Amino acid sequence: MFFPMKMYAIVDCDNCYVSCERVFRPDLEGRPVVVLSNNDGCVVARSNEAKAMGVKAGTPFFQLEQMFPGKKIAVFSSNYELYGELTGRVVNIIRNESPALFRYSIDECFVYLDSELDYKKWGEELHKKIRKWTGMPVSIGIAPTKTLAKVASHFAKKYSGYNHCCVIDTDEKRQKALRLFPVDDVWGVGRRYAAKLTAYGVKTAFDFACRHSDWVRVTFNNIVIHRTWQELNGVDCVPNEEMAKKKSICTSRSFNGMISDYTTLRTHVSNYAARCAEKLRSQNTVCSVVGVFINTNAFREDLAQYWNYLDRRLITPSNSSVTIVKAAGQLLRDIYRHGYQYKKAGVIVMGIGNPYPMEHDLFDITAEQLQKMKRLDAVIDRINRANGSETVVLGSQQYTRPNGEGKAEVFANAIRHDFRSPNPTTRWSEIIRLV
User: Which residues pair with 103 in a beta bridge?
Assistant: First the structure.
């Protein structure tokens, strides 16, 4: 098979969250490390040492000590501010060293490579530069299709002999790699399709690639699966343009414990709405629909159960924190019912589109008010970028509670993060001090 001259690389941060935590904690190299989900609920990221111990993704935090008695496991709460900042540095390096790229996720970038490059040398040098400049380890897979590049990345990550960069540039290498690659690990093959393929005796990516095109079409009747089959056979067919912007954004959390009072619940919902607004502004879009949902704990059969969702269309599409938080608060007020113990809430923004040209309704908001809100959001975003997220928040994002001394303490974030690491690159108050 003759591969086209165009090649793709995928640059993937190794154990991203754990690697971010290790950047400022070199003493953790070689030690088992785990990162927990929101509210310190369960394990979402593991170092190779933790994986070797048998720590599984999704393990509840409270079970770790019982399952691994006497084992010293370093535990961290999720710190997305730190992870976003460090991976942003990695992406900037990749951008400077690449002809073109697009970011696929927080820890992965696809790169379009020129045919004149020495692919192996380029990948190894990029790994060295990223490691030296940011402290982040990466694995690089290079191949003529995005799916094969993902396969190559797996081998670069798993086998040290590749020196962090694996290149699939001949049909012989392609076949050898696919024979060693389980079909359920193939990018684009979900759990349901993997089970169906296994039932047909397809165990490896090579088994799948060897099936006839007509068999794939008739068996699955799914364009994504057929594209995956084509890509495994060296046909570049996954669209090359950047991933389309999200059509909806959802921010939701399960609470640490349960909440019954409206004021505390409103604080959470206001925080979620503000984060949705920030995400809209970060991708330069607006939304036309805001939705809110709340629910009790379905596993507590001894408690009364309640679930509700309500959404509302905005007269003028917006990405303003004030507008979206206000709409979410009104929706929560309409669906909240007294007497229930709530376990989870969330905000969804939909109908996402470009902000320009954007018309405003004369009965909703004036042009002058619209400009004031834009300036307010810009100032809040700038301050929070410089000093750390939630340095400045809206009043409804805060709640107060007695501190036992006759005074009220103010809280802006009710999410539990008992093991959160500092943010020395984004917060002056947490900058590293050398003594």
Answer: 109
Tell me the two tokens of residue 155: 């081998």
Relative orientation angle of helices 146-158 and 171-179, to the nearest 10 degrees: 60
Closest CA to 82 of 94, 90, 92, 73: 90
Model-level pTM? 0.68
Amino acid in position 224: V
* 3-state class (DSSP) for residue 55: coil
Rg (CA), the chain: 24
Q: What is the pLDDT of residues 32-51, one digit of tens each?
A: 999 998 678 889 899 999 99
Cα 329 off chain centre by? 26
Distance CA 430, CA 75 (A): 19
pLDDT in tens, 9-19: 999 999 999 99
Cα–Cα distances (Å) from 19 to 32, 35, 134, 400, in that order, read 12, 10, 10, 36
Q: How far apart are CA 140 and CA 149, in angstroms?
A: 8
CB within 8 Å of 188: residues ≥ 6 apart: 147, 224, 225, 227, 228, 231
**Please, what is the Cα angle at 25 between 24 and 28, to 5 degrees?**
150
Residues with Cβ within 8 Å of residue 246, at least 6 apart in sequence: 283, 352
Give the separation between CA 310 and CA 323, rounded to whole angstroms: 17
